[in-house]
Amino acid sequence: MQEYTLYVGADHRGFEKKNQLIQILQKCHPGMVKAEDLGPAAYEETDDYNDIAISVAKAVLRNEHSFGILLCGSAHGVTMQANRFKGIRAVNADTVESAKHARANDYANILCLSADYLELEQMEPIIKAFCHTKPDPAERYQRRAKKLDEDYN
What are the pLDDT digits (tens) for 36-48? Predict the structure, then answer.
């Protein structure tokens, strides 16, 4: 198993669950998995999901042996913001199967979770499935992932 870092962040609606997830993730595979809390450090009701999504996306881009975990109310906002970066493939997954598919077929590197619609007990197996699934090396999946980074403007 390759050592990797999980960069975790949330807006105000995901703040409490993020703090609980960090505690769980720091106990996963000690020495192999590092869970890094990118914030916020304190609850701020007027924060913007954009800011934490940008921080996590930039961290993932700097470290090829990493994944991002983002939480907001619906997970839609953080997903859209993170995907603004070339090289980021953020997905909103709410099942283990969806998380596995996103990693294997779409080469996702940031998992976005809904703090409003998922309980902590549901999040943990989704995160584990996401992190432990390897991208399928088939040419068609590689080709599709490369197209995600093309500039269409």
Answer: 999 999 999 999 9
